[in-house]
Amino acid sequence: MALTLYELGGLQDRRYSQFSWRTRLALAHKRLPVTCKPVRISDKAAIAFSGQNNVPILVDSDTTIVDSWKIAEYLEDKYPDGPSLFGGAVGRGVARFVNAWVDRQIIPAALPLVVCDVEGIVDADDGAHLRSFMERILRATFAEMREQRAERKAAWKRLLDPARATLKSQPFLSGAAAAYPDYILFSVFQWARIISTFELLEPDDPLSLWRERMLDLFEGLARNAPARH
User: Could you write out the DSSP letters of every residue in 12-71?
Assistant: First the structure.
């Protein structure tokens, strides 16, 4: 077994892909050692071997897997002796729902709140690439996003109510211990703290306490990562 994870890398060794963080935490959960290789977002040649342009990419000896969800399923099936990411077939189905909820609702709401600060953690070429791409898909300049984010924050907070309600009665989304649904949602907060100083949560929010517990997992794997917040 020789696992290699290709992920986005910025200045001062910042690893800022939220999808790669899902995979990092999944690998730690499964107790699998991995070599992490940073790539610049504008350097498509570095990941051309995968046949596509996105990270994370997991290489397991002669097998290449792309997409964080597919990687999670691969790890669960390939390495069943490690702790389960899903807790069975029903749990896998619930995790698939959380994955879709976060990707289609939470990330689009979080993007204009923090992505406008991403230029501060990448070099000039990557910054220009990200600015052009994000301003095009969000139909606003980075300056406009910064001006509007205070008013956008209330709507963002409401979207998180299902997670907030769940965490009032249990320490993790998955129950007594963290599992892949937690890693999916937490990846958004980890990405935000790495690229921006804008605070997405209030200190008394139940999600803030959960985020602290997530930061402490696996001997502080996420907490010890270079971040701006």
Answer: GG----HHHHHHHHHHHHTT---EEEEE-TT-GGGGGGGTSS-S-EEEETTEEEESHHHH
Q: What is the residue extent of each domain of the chain?
A: 3-78, 89-220
Euclidean distance between the first and the last CA atom of the chain, given in angstroms as a whole number: 35
Sign of the CA dihedral 67, 4, 181, 19?
negative
Percentage of residues in the chain having pLDDT higher than 90: 95
Q: Tell me if 3-78 shares its fold with 89-220.
A: no
Both tokens assigned to 80: 């069943």
Helix (H) or strand (E) holding 184: helix 180-195
**Among candidate residues 7, 43, 42, the one with its CA nearest the CA of residue 27:** 7
Neighbouring residues of 3: CB distance < 8 A, sequence distance ≥ 6: 27, 32, 33, 34, 35, 58, 59, 60
Q: What pLDDT digit, counting tens, does each position of 165-207 carry?
A: 999 999 999 999 999 999 999 999 999 999 999 999 999 999 9
In DSSP terms, 60 is beta-bridged to 3, 63
Is domain 89-220 given the CATH code 1.10.357 in the classification? Answer: no
Fold of 3-78: Glutaredoxin (3.40.30)
**Token pair belonging to 40:** 């610049």
* Contact between residue 57 and residue 6 where contact means Cβ atoms under 8 Å apart: yes
